[in-house]
Amino acid sequence: MLFRASVHVRSSGLRKRCFASAAAGFRIPVIDFSRFRAARSLAEKKETANEIVSAFKNSGFIYVSNHGISEDTVSNVFRKSAAFFKLPEGVKAQLAWEDPRSNRGYVQIGRERVTQSANAAEISALREKAPDFKETMEIGRDWDSEWKNQWPKESDVPGFNKTMLDFFQTCHNLHVEMMQSVALGLDLSQDFFDSKIDQQCHNLRLLSYPPIKRAFLDGDGQARAGAHSDYGTLTLLFQAQVGGLEVMDPQSGVFVPATPIPGTIVINVGDLLARWSNDVLRSTLHRVVAPAKMISSTETITPARQSIAFFSNPNFDTLIECLPNCGKKARYPPVNTETYIVGRLAATYM
Q1: Which end of the chain is less enclosed by CB atoms within 10 A, N or C?
Q2: Are 90 and 195 spatial neighbours (Cβ–Cβ below 8 Å)?
Q3: pLDDT at 121
Q4: How many whole angstroms separate alpha carbon 341 and alpha carbon 100?
Q5: What residue ranges do the domains of the chain occupy?
Q6: pLDDT band for position 289 (50/70/90)?
Q7: Which helix (DSSP H) or strand (DSSP E) does residue 286 occupy?
Q8: Which family does it belong to (predicted)?
Q9: Which residues pair with 234 in a beta bridge?
Q10: 20: helix, coil or strand?
């Protein structure tokens, strides 16, 4: 695999561009989102919007810098996440994920098996053969009248609940702005998606990848998290510096490292946004692999890894069908957001 990471800084405006590329020129560009937020006209906003949509058409992934979420905020969320995962298994088990319609709670190692398959029996076999070596905590909107978050006791992780709820809202606000940029880049009105995402039917996922001997990951199909695409509109991924995320070049099929870049968020297109855009925007396969270090002359171990993903979704009552000016013939039949997402979740978990 040929891989290149490069940084270019242009003095006029100090515009930074970083990207990962494979031999065929696959790139994940860095987009300075402050140019969109500070723009004085729609024309100025559209310049950045066009860059974002162009990247989403080609790779489905971007790094976003100057996104408005402070480094202190992100660091605090990582600290609270780490404190949660250090709790005894028995304490975490009391908060266990129960229902795909809720999608809230603690998911122990091996319970989830991400894959592109939609066949429950096939996924069950994959999970038995090669489970994902990660644990997660799933958090939704807290005011939901039907489904409640599974919160740890305040005494177990002081400040956890408030930190995560504040961060949930912060990520939603950025998601709204990002979707406004997508709308402009697709030549729609800036507010086209606003009323279709305002119910905040999102999922904040805290992820912990404990250390594991590399030998356990060398079997057929094994990975920290198998190759998959995401389900919703956009995913906001906050990476720690350990790395491990790889994105598949759609042209060559080669997985390319999405190396962490300090101060940026990785944002990618999900399946429902791809369907909405009639595949004008690309929902790209990605996976998490395990960098390893030697612990003896014959054995290696993967380091602990943390990440935080904000899976953004349309309102659950939204009908996803081909957007205006995204082709005359729809590639997919219309689908209800909740039906699609709950169906995917039901097949993914045991």
Answers
A1: N
A2: no
A3: 53
A4: 8
A5: 4-348
A6: confident
A7: strand 286-288
A8: Belongs to the iron/ascorbate-dependent oxidoreductase family.
A9: 269
A10: strand
Task: Give the amino acid at 262.
Answer: P
Rg from Cα positions in the chain: 20
pLDDT score, position 111: 55
Distances (CA, A) of 317 to 195, 279, 313, 335: 11, 21, 11, 10
Q: In the chain, what is the greatest distance between 2 CA atoms, to the nearest angstrom?
A: 61
| CATH number belonging to domain 4-348 | 2.60.120.330
What would the pLDDT profile of 230-243 be if each residue is shown by its tens digit?
Answer: 999 999 999 987 77
Strands of 245-248's sheet in order across = 225-228, 286-288, 245-248, 255-257
Let me know: does 204 contact 172? Beta carbons within 8 Å: no
Report how far apart, in Å, the C-alpha atoms of 84 and of each of 145, 153, 277, 327 are. 25, 10, 38, 46
What SS3 state is found at 338? helix
Share of the chain above pLDDT 70, in %: 79
Contact criterion met (CB below 8 Å) for 280 and 330: no
Within 8 A by CB and 6+ apart from 135, the residues are: 85, 92, 106, 107, 108, 109, 207, 208, 210
Determine phi and psi for 127, rounding to 5 degrees.
-65, -40
Which of helix, strand or coil describes residue 339?
helix
The set of residues, in sequence order, having a beta carbon less than 8 Å from that of 163 and lying 6+ positions away, is 76, 77, 80
Give the chain's mean pLDDT: 85
pLDDT reported for residue 297: 53
Q: Provide the token pair at 255.
A: 């997985």
Per-residue pLDDT, 5: 36
Query: What residues contact residue 155 under an 8 Å CB cut-off, 6+ apart?
Result: none
Q: How far is CA 163 from CA 166, 169, 219, in A?
A: 5, 10, 38
Residue type, 146: E
Q: Which residue's structure tokens are 């990848």? A: 209
Q: What pLDDT is recorded for position 298?
A: 52
Q: How far is CA 308 from CA 50, 77, 155, 183, in A?
A: 27, 9, 23, 26
Is residue 181 within 8 A of residue 45, CB to CB? The reply is yes
What is the residue whose two structure tokens read 């006791």?
153
pLDDT tens, 131-178?
Answer: 567 899 999 999 998 999 999 999 999 999 999 999 999 999 999 999
